[in-house]
Amino acid sequence: MPDALDESPAAPQPEADVVIVMGVSGSGKSTVGKGISTVMGWEFAEGDAFHSEANVEKMRSGQPLTDEDRWPWLESIGDWISGKEASRESAVVTCSALRRVYRDLLRRDRPHVRFLHVEAASDLIEDRMQHRPGHYMPPSLLPSQLATLEPLEPDEPGTTVTNEGTAAAVLDRSLNALGLRKDTTS
Ligand SMILES: Nc1ncnc2c1ncn2[C@@H]1O[C@H](COP(=O)(O)OP(=O)(O)OP(=O)(O)O)[C@@H](O)[C@H]1O
Ligand SMILES: [Mg+2]
Questions:
Q1: What predicted TM-score, i.e. pTM, was given to this entire model?
Q2: How far is the CA of 4 from the centre of ligand 2 (A)?
C-alpha cells in the first residue's frame, strides 16, 4: 500500500534571473547579451524590438528620443520581464537604460532584475559602428548618448564590464562578473 509520506515533494522551481544588458549604442550590448543567452540557455530579447514604429523612425532620422518617447518603450520591456519573472524563466534583454530613472522604472516591482553595464571607449565604438551594416542608429547619436549616460550607482543591482578585447573575452568577463560562470573543469 503506497504511503503518501514517502513521496518527496517536488523541488521548488528556482526564481528567474533577469539580466538587462545596458550601455550606449554600439557599446556591445547585443553581442554580450546573445552570448549570455547562448551559454546559459536563457531567452534573449532585443530592447530595441519593443520600440514603436514612430520611435524607430525618429532614431533612423538621427533625432534623439525624448523621455516621453521612452516611457512606453520601457514599460513594454518591463512587461516582458514581468512575464519572465512570473513563469520563473531566466532571461537576458538589451536596453540602453542610460539614466537611473529608466533603470528604476525597469526594476520597479521586479525583484529579479539586475544590470550588466557594457562600457567601451568612444573611439572604439565609433570605429565599430562605421563597420556595422543595416543598423538604424547612426554614429552621430553617440555624443548625446555619452552625455546622457549615468553609470550604475552603488545601490543598484548589477555590475560593469569593459568591452575590450575579443567578444569571447568580454563574454567570459561578463559571466564571471555576474557570477554565472559555469564549471568548465568537468
Ligand atoms: N569585443 C568586440 N570586438 C569586436 N567587435 C565587437 C565587439 N563587441 C561588439 N563588436 C561589434 O561592435 C558593433 C556594436 O556591437 P553591438 O551591436 O553588440 O552593440 P549594441 O550596444 O548592441 O549597439 P546598439 O545599441 O546600437 O544596438 C557590432 O558590429 C559588433 O559586432
Ligand atoms: Mg544592439
A1: 0.89
A2: 52
